[in-house]
Write a structure and sequence with these properties.
21% of the residues are buried. The chain has a five-stranded antiparallel β-sheet with strand order 2-1-5-4-3. A five-stranded antiparallel β-sheet has the order 7-6-10-9-8. The longest helix has 67 residues. With 707 residues, it is an alpha+beta fold. It is elongated and about 200 Å long. Among the domains are: 105 residues, Beta-Lactamase, CATH 3.30.450; 93 residues, 2-Layer Sandwich (Beta-Lactamase); 74 residues, Orthogonal Bundle (Helix Hairpins), CATH 1.10.287; 143 residues, Heat Shock Protein 90 (2-Layer Sandwich), CATH 3.30.565. Helix content is 46%, strand content 22%.
């Protein structure tokens, strides 16, 4: 479809929509205003009708009071006979019936008759008046049904004595004429309703219109707009006058004021015609203007459209010739500037994209090259990125964890404490978190959390969290070895001091004992002194060993045959094994081993301590095995001592080489055995490694350099 056609149809559619909208809005406004005017007029007319009705009641009341105060009438009634009846009728007509009262009824208790004094004797029958009765001692007004006719009745007792009383009833019939006189506006119609049935007026003999909600007519005043009566619309006001006794019981009595709605409807129709005419004229005028304008716009727009297609296909150097100086010319110039700017922006954007891609690849290479495991956690606690080390540590696939919540990852290291701190960092309540954790046999890991800050999160918290997990097993092991070395160094210094202090008195004891042996003549005493000399030499030997333990000088080491030393130690230990234990000692030796760079007595001390600990760890029956072999790369001598005892708990392993640390009870150990072993091994540039599983056993691995 061409632009002209589209423009033409567009403007026509706009005008039609606008016309319909204006027609709808104006019609509703006029209708609403008409309804308000009609209700206002109805309210005023209903007020006038109601006041007119009350005026009749006031007039009737005044006549009633005048009757009661009329002494002449009372005298006529006291002396009433056949001759004075004409005088009574004449007096009543002259003073009361000329005021609009339709009938005067006089009823006495002393005479069995009723005097009826109407203008027209055909208004009521005697049977209609049978229901008249004075029930009060004072004057009063009431609305009553006399036969089928509704009436205003004023009642008054003129004379009263024990044997004689006279009651007067002033009756105003509520009929068609009465209803017409109540309204000053000839367009309004007045009716009286008893319940939902009309007794008098225009609606006499008809029921309440179906549009009126009877439940809403229970109020004192209620109006209804545009009610259909006889195929015409009326505005109706209902005013409740009170309750009226009828053959069906006590029912509500209403006075109904109705105004024809025809003038207001004619006004709405006239306005609709005017609005429709204006709308059609506007649509026609718009069509003509659209035809004129579209021809002057469509050609430039087509040129602009062709230029847009060229830009869309990548021809950013497109330029449209500008001839006109109007808004169309400004549009062309703006389009040319836009195309030129797009060309520059495209080149700049391509450069930016290349730089971003290079930077992204560079950053990813750096992150994936880190030996520490790195993962990025977004504010929703989901994994956004993980590097290669992180995936290798926990044997995961990148596709399986990206988008997964961190609390759903199958990683033992990430416990409730880690998850809690991740939440605190993301909320901005914490700036850093670090913790070192052991993961069974996998090693020791250092876990760190950093906030991933972003400018949009400065006030609300972090844009995410960086989780790093680094394997620090070797570092922790090195720190533990350094710590053990420092403690053994302190023990060596202490041992050197103790040995020095013991050597001085030992030298004196040895000299004195030797002198006593030379001077002693008694052989029995001489034997005792020799025993003292022997034990003193033993103490001196022990002190020398203590000094050797504290010394770091490994020169003069003659080396030892590892297999032979272990064989000697096993032969020696078998004699000291507890008889109540069924322990089997197994050995597996590699033949042709080179000599280890450690003295035999020191190696014996190491093996004795290790085997002794293994025997004590076995409860009941078990196995202690010793194995030797040469390293395949560095040719170091390796010794493995393994048992099937109760093992060592994980929290005790870092402390087993501490001096005086022991888990044995009842004075079974001093806590120095493994400290001495550690000192001897480190003294000769050896290594010691302990592996244990509680309930299964312990394996100790030693290695020494060769000569």
């Amino acid at each position: 479809m061409k632009l002209f056609t589209k423009t033409f149809l567009f403007f026509i559619s706009i005008i039609i929509i606008q016309s319909n909208l204006a027609f709808f809005i104006i019609t509703n406004i006029i209708k609403k205003n008409n309804e308000e005017d009609a209700k206002k007029e109805l309210t005023e007319e209903a007020y006038i009708v109601y006041e007119s009705y009350n005026a009749w009641k006031r007039s009737l009341w005044i006549n009633l009071i005048t009757l009661r105060e009329d002494e002449q009438l009372k005298r006529i009634l006291r002396d009433l006979d056949v001759y004075s009846r004409k005088q009574l009728f004449s007096y009543i007509k002259e003073n009361f019936l000329t005021g609009g009262i339709d009938c005067v009824v006089i009823r006495s208790t002393g005479y069995p008759h009723i005097e009826l004094i109407p203008y027209d004797y055909s208004i009521f029958t005697l049977s209609d008046l049978e229901s008249l009765n004075n029930v009060k001692s004072h004057p009063y007004l009431q609305t009553a049904l006399l036969g089928p006719v509704l009436n205003l009745v004023g009642t008054c007792r003129l004379l009263s004595s024990p044997d004689f009383s006279v009651d007067v009833f002033l009756i105003k019939q509520i009929g068609q004429d009465f209803c017409q006189n109540l309204s000053l506006e000839r367009r309004s119609r007045v009716s009286f309703l008893l319940g939902d049935f009309s007794l008098a007026g225009e609606l006499r003999g008809q029921s309440l219109p179906s549009q009126i909600d009877r439940a809403q007519t229970q109020s004192v005043y209620r109006d209804f707009y545009d009610v259909d009566i006889g195929e015409r619309g009326y505005n109706i006001a209902l005013q409740k006058l009170g309750m009226l006794d009828s053959s069906e019981g006590e029912r509500p009595l209403y006075i109904v004021t109705s105004l024809s709605n025809a003038p207001f409807q004619r006004r709405v129709v006239a306005v609709k015609r005017i609005v429709l005419f204006v709308s059609l004229f506007g649509a026609l005028l718009t069509a003509v203007l659209s035809l004129f304008l579209s021809r002057n716009i469509s050609k430039p727009v087509k040129r602009l459209l062709r230029g847009m297609y060229r830009v869309k296909n990548g021809g950013y150097e497109t330029e449209i010739g500008v001839k006109a100086g109007s808004e169309i010319g400004e549009l062309f110039r703006g389009f040319n500037e836009m195309a030129h700017k797009l060309s520059l922006d495209k080149d700049q954007m391509e450069n930016y994209i290349r730089e971003i891609i290079l930077l992204k690849d560079y950053n990813e290479k750096i992150i994936h090259s880190l030996r520490a495991g790195v993962a990025i956690i977004n504010p929703n606690l989901c994994i956004e990125m993980a590097n290669s080390s992180f995936l290798q540590y926990f044997q995961l696939n990148e596709t399986d964890i990206i988008g997964t919540r961190v609390d759903e990852l199958p990683i033992v290291l990430i416990d409730d404490e880690i998850l809690q701190n991740v939440g605190l960092l993301i909320q901005g309540k914490r700036e850093f978190y670090s913790k070192i954790k052991r993961s069974g046999d996998s090693g020791v890991f250092e876990i760190k959390l950093y906030p991933l800050a972003g400018s949009q999160y400065k006030s609300t918290g972090s844009a995410g969290c960086v989780l790093t997990i680094d394997d620090v097993s070797e570092k922790v092991e090195l720190e533990e070895k350094i710590f053990q070395a420092e403690k053994l160094s302190s023990l060596s210094v202490l041992s050197a001091g103790v040995a020095h202090e013991i050597n001085n008195p030992l030298s004196s004891i040895m000299s004195n004992v030797q002198n006593l042996i030379e001077e002693e003549q008694d052989e029995e005493r001489k034997v005792s002194l020799k025993w003292i000399e022997q034990e003193t030499r033993r103490i001196a030997h022990t002190v020398r060993e203590l000094l050797n333990f504290s010394s770091t000088d490994a020169r003069g080491v003659q080396g030892s045959d590892v297999n032979e030393v272990i064989t000697q130690v096993i032969a020696l230990i078998k004699y000291s094994m507890h008889k109540e234990k069924d322990i089997r000692i197994e050995t597996v030796f590699e033949d042709g081993l080179l000599r280890a760079m450690i003295n035999e007595n020191e190696l014996q001390q190491v093996i004795i301590n290790l085997v002794h600990n293994s025997i004590q760890a076995v409860e009941g029956s078990g196995t202690v095995s010793l194995r030797t072999f040469s390293g395949s790369v560095d040719h170091r001598i390796n010794i493995v001592v393994e048992d099937t005892g109760h093992g060592i708990s994980e929290e005790h392993i870092p402390h087993i080489f501490d001096p005086f640390f022991t888990t044995k009870h009842n004075s079974q150990g001093t806590g120095l055995g493994l400290s001495v072993v550690y000192g001897i091994v480190r003294k000769h540039s050896g290594h010691i490694k302990v592996e244990s599983t509680p309930g299964k056993g312990t394996r100790v691995t030693l290695d020494f350099p060769t000569l």
